[in-house]
Design a protein that fits this description.
The complex is a heterodimer of chains A (391) and B (271).
Chain A: H1 12-16, H2 46-56, H3 60-74, E1 83-86, H4 91-102, E2 108-113, H5 120-131, E3 135-139, H6 143-157, H7 162-178, E4 183-186, H8 190-193, E5 205-206, H9 210-215, H10 231-234, H11 242-247, E6 251-254, H12 255-258, H13 263-273, H14 298-309, H15 313-323, H16 329-339, H17 348-355, H18 359-368, E7 375-378, E8 381-384
Parallel strand pairs in A: 1-2, 2-3, 4-6
Antiparallel strand pairs in A: 5-6, 7-8
Helix pairs in contact in A: 4-13, 15-16
Chain B: H1 3-18, E1 22-30, E2 33-38, E3 41-47, H2 49-59, E4 63-68, H3 71-74, H4 80-89, E5 94-97, H5 103-111, E6 116-119, H6 121-125, H7 128-137, E7 142-152, E8 155-160, E9 165-170, H8 171-181, E10 185-190, H9 202-211, E11 216-219, H10 225-233, E12 239-242, H11 244-247, H12 253-262
Parallel strand pairs in B: 1-4, 1-12, 4-5, 5-6, 6-7, 7-10, 10-11, 11-12
Antiparallel strand pairs in B: 1-2, 2-3, 7-8, 8-9
Helix pairs in contact in B: 2-4, 10-12
Classes of the chains: A mainly alpha (391), B alpha/beta (271).
Chain lengths: 391, 271
């Protein structure tokens, strides 16, 4: 850890603008502690309302027509890439890339940002995806710098995953500029599907500059120069210069706007079309075997989310499966009770070593993010004050 | 293939022809719905369980398996109503499993119309439950359900909670122990093959049938009727459980039976 960092108690409420009065959505398992989510007067969260809206009121034939228009507008037909598809080799990016290429006649360049520490199954899936018929560029930053940033991000932001998120969001922009491709197509807009800033609910694209606010917790990669990381080292994590993005007419669209977004159906689609295989066992902290399985260290990202907001991976997974009609709220609650907040112990030693911290330092940082409105200490152990089964 | 191998294959074939191979329709249930996944993941709603059960009964299934595959995952058991209503118009043996944690749970299901009960997660947690059920109702009633996942060459590990939790138990050792405790039949599901249509895990089935003398039902991976022939002849399965191939109407039980017969397997025939 850098020098003798004194870990101060964090102001989680202020930093993330959290409501002090914890409430749970009456339809799913999410609480109002998810940053930027909103609840309506009947106690239903914005993500559930959006899920209903998309089932009942969106004319998907009309949306597909818009997609055909968009493709027509950007299709080059001269052998050059005409769309960038960010993809880890998982079921969601795989679905988008495969549809764009084989159904809509686009020529996608798929781009992948390296996980902090790849899992075997993740690597296998990426290979299978490429093997199923795609060009791919894998971006990997200097490992030493990535580790340093992981350490800093964990210590200062309480999220070891921030460096990965920088690359995941900014690398596609670099590739767009470099290959003169104006269109970047993401899968779903998480802000809309899972609850967040609703201004994007009725548009197919998003502002490139929302990146810092929505994905980087307000801290762009440049911030870390204050902690002694050089601009050269940060360059791969940073977005290309703004004027280059503009000159390239770069635009970011979401496939979930044009086509009904159903992660489970993406799983079926990719099992059939891109050689996707789910994890041999469930990921720690949730019940799912097919989502977010390519990084050995992402468990700590989800775990810190559980500490800061009381919302672990199971709560999020169950919430969107409830919205998708895959499980009932009762089933979701049973899963949250059973798996949420489970400590990711499988790769813990590896994580500590990767971050160059001790277990005591880890605990100290984790505890600094426990807000008094969410946590209490009972018989020497931390316990959530409010749960979805005991609000 | 050398002469010795030929002789063995011919012998297996002769035995298979003598044995009655049972064709079993497997219905995985979640809540009120018939569901199906791939590797027990991504459970897709297929329809109403009893509609499908009636269809498979009419098509000539020898038995049905009802499995509430997520009962343990959710800590509940709620197959009773579905079984009760199925028992009204399905007149072939029904095996029911999922969330059975006690002799009382088993009693409940048997009273509702089940002929056998299948236990997985609770048997791993408490192997004594196998003997308790076998002693109370007889071994023929006690089906040990095993979710097996390959972990090395000719090595498989027992999973529970619908293929989500590892147990550290070796499948072969667990089968041996289960039979000693009183299991009268094994329902052997390959997590690796389940829902993939890539054929049964024949070496897994063979490893288990070689170990125990009780009937073994092979489950998971049937892509074509020929896969059934392979797992019976090479794996020496006594029965096969079919789900995906039936639910997605890729073949009807009658067609499958005809292929089995043409391959020389002994299956039930209709007058």
């Amino acid at each position: 850890m850098e020098g003798q960092l004194k870990v101060e108690k964090r102001d989680v409420i202020g930093q993330y603008k959290l409501p002090v009065d914890v409430r749970f959505c009456s339809k799913c398992t999410i609480s109002n502690q998810r940053p930027r989510i909103s609840f309506d007067a009947t106690g239903v969260c914005s993500a559930c309302n959006f899920a209903e809206y998309k089932r009942k009121h969106v004319d998907w034939n009309e949306r597909e027509k818009q997609l055909l228009e968009l493709c027509k507008q950007y299709r080059k037909g001269n052998g050059e890439y005409d769309v960038i598809v960010p993809c880890s080799g998982g079921k969601d990016g795989g679905f988008v890339a495969h549809q764009l290429k084989y159904r809509y006649g686009m020529n996608p360049l798929t781009v992948t940002w390296s996980p902090l520490k790849a899992t075997d199954i993740g690597r296998k899936n990426l290979d299978a995806f490429i093997g199923s018929g795609f060009d791919n560029i894998l971006g990997t930053a200097n490992g030493k710098v990535t580790r340093k940033l992981t350490n800093l991000a964990f210590a200062h932001l309480g999220d070891p995953f921030q460096p990965f998120i920088y690359g995941q969001a900014n690398f596609p922009l670099h590739m767009a500029v470099k290959y003169k491709v104006s269109l970047i197509m993401y899968g779903e807009n998480g802000e809309v599907e899972y609850g967040g800033d609703e201004k994007n609910a009725f548009r197919p694209d998003r502002e490139v500059q929302d990146q810092d606010k929505h994905y980087f917790s307000g801290l762009a990669p440049e911030f870390w120069t204050e902690h002694g990381v050089s601009v050269a080292d940060l360059k791969p994590f940073m977005a290309p210069p703004h004027e280059e993005i503009v000159r390239n007419r770069t635009t970011i669209h979401f496939f979930g706007y044009y086509k009904f977004w159903d992660p489970q159906e993406n799983f079926y689609y990719c099992t059939e079309n891109t050689g996707f295989t789910p994890n041999p066992e469930r990921s720690e902290g949730t019940y799912s075997k097919y989502a977010s399985l390519d990084d050995r260290l992402d468990g700590y990202h989800y775990y810190l989310g559980f500490i800061k907001f009381g919302i672990g991976r199971t709560t999020s997974d169950a919430a969107h499966e409830i919205r998708d009609g895959k499980i009932t709220r009762e089933e979701g609650i049973a899963l949250v009770k059973r798996y949420d907040g489970e400590f990711p112990k499988k790769y813990f030693d590896e994580f500590l070593e990767y971050c160059s911290i001790t277990k005591a330092q880890f605990d100290e940082i984790v505890d600094s993010w426990r807000s008094h409105h969410l946590w209490e200490r009972v018989d020497g152990a931390w316990r959530l004050k409010h749960t979805v089964w005991q609000p | 293939m050398g002469a010795g191998r030929w002789r063995l294959a011919a012998e297996a074939h002769r035995l298979a022809a003598l044995r009655n191979t049972r064709l079993i329709a497997r219905l995985d249930i979640k809540g009120p719905n018939l569901i199906k996944g791939i590797h027990l993941e991504g459970l897709r709603v297929i329809g109403s369980p009893n509609e499908y059960a009636r269809l498979y009964y009419q098509q000539g299934a020898d038995e049905l398996i009802y499995m509430d595959c997520v009962a343990s995952l959710y800590g509940r058991n709620n197959l009773r109503d579905i079984v009760e209503s199925a028992a009204q118009d399905v007149f072939v043996p029904m095996t029911v499993g999922g969330g059975i944690r006690s002799v009382a749970d088993a009693t409940d299901l048997l009273r509702s119309g089940a002929d056998k009960v299948a236990v997985n997660t609770a048997a791993v947690a408490n192997p004594g439950l196998i003997s308790d059920i076998a002693q109370r109702f007889g071994s023929q009633c006690m089906v040990l359900s095993i979710e097996a996942k390959q972990i090395g060459p000719a090595r498989w590990e027992v999973y529970t909670d619908n293929g989500r939790e590892r147990t550290g138990l070796d499948v072969i050792e667990w089968v041996r122990r289960g039979v000693t405790l009183g299991a009268g039949e094994i329902l052997l599901t390959s997590v690796d093959r389940e829902g993939t249509r890539r054929g049964f895990d024949v070496p897994l089935v063979r490893a288990v049938t070689a170990e125990v003398s009780v009937p073994v039902i092979a489950s998971g991976g049937m892509g074509t009727p020929q896969d059934l022939v392979d797992v019976v002849l090479q794996g020496e399965a006594d029965a096969v459980a079919m789900a995906d191939i039936l639910h997605y109407r890729r073949a009807a039980i009658g067609d499958i039976r005809a292929v089995a017969q043409a391959a020389g397997l002994h299956v039930r025939t209709y007058g």
